[in-house]
Write a structure and sequence with these properties.
The protein is of the alpha+beta class. It has a single domain, classed as Alpha-Beta Complex (Spore Coat Polysaccharide Biosynthesis Protein SpsA, Chain A). Helix content is 30%, strand content 28%. It contains 8 helices and 12 strands. Strand 1 and strand 2 form a beta hairpin. The longest helix is centred in the N-terminal third of the chain and has 11 residues. It starts with 13 loop residues before the first strand and ends with a helix.
Length: 220
């Protein structure tokens, strides 16, 4: 998204006159989520403070906490800062730069009826070769193929996860850099504790580049 992200963090980029993060908070609130924790880089603290001051009265919840990483720690490393806030509860985790709309209640129900420690949202796309594609047996995910030339299916990791407290409790946060994709999910897959939920009749827009951002503005 450069050069836009030189000035604006991705979650604060607008779609339909509202920051992407607003759309995500509204989506979760629609499904009963009342508390939101945002993990952001310390270098963007001023941006998120202004965002919260500007938009809080228009959000469906005022329970929005922002946590800041002093330096990049990967997609999961910074969750150390959220550990006390999470309080040992099940967490819904989302990327901050995409838009999604589907029946989250069905995903939560499927996860709670399973024995997995994490369930990933899977969305069907026309060309999955640009994404991480799951290799599955039933609902279990055995591994992910990153940008495969010959994908086994058209479903991709859509950047929304349900994770159990064990995931945080079992993580060694003394490591400086921890990735969901390379460190957490592969280990859960080996243990048979990683599942996928294929959303039906859902919408998902990746706003990670200029072309897809424009598509989101036109179609969301």
């Amino acid at each position: 998204m450069r050069p836009i992200t030189y000035e604006i963090p991705k979650p604060l980029i607008p779609v339909k006159k509202k920051p992407i993060i607003n759309h995500l908070i509204e989506f979760f609130a629609k499904h009963g989520v009342k508390e939101v924790g945002l993990l952001a880089s310390r270098e963007h603290e001023d941006d998120f403070r202004r965002w919260k001051k500007t938009w809080l009265d228009e959000l469906p919840t005022d329970k929005v906490s922002i946590f800041y990483e002093e330096k990049p720690r990967g997609t999961f490393g910074g969750f150390e800062y959220l550990k006390d806030w999470a309080g040992g509860d099940q967490l819904l985790v989302s990327n901050g730069d995409d838009l999604k709309d589907f029946d989250l209640g069905d995903m939560i129900k499927a996860h709670n009826e399973d024995d997995s420690h994490a369930t990933l949202l899977l969305m069907e796309v026309p060309d999955p070769r640009k994404y991480g594609v799951p290799v599955m047996k039933g609902q279990k995910i055995n591994e992910f193929l990153e940008k495969p030339e010959n994908p086994p299916c058209n479903y991709i990791n859509a950047g929304l996860y349900i994770i159990e407290p064990d995931v945080m409790n079992d993580t060694d946060f003394s490591k400086e850099y921890i990735m969901f994709e390379k460190d957490i999910f592969p280990e859960l897959a080996k243990k048979g504790k990683l599942s996928g939920f294929k959303a039906v009749n859902g919408r998902w827009f990746d706003c990670g580049n200029l072309e897809s951002w424009e598509k989101a503005m036109m179609e969301w």
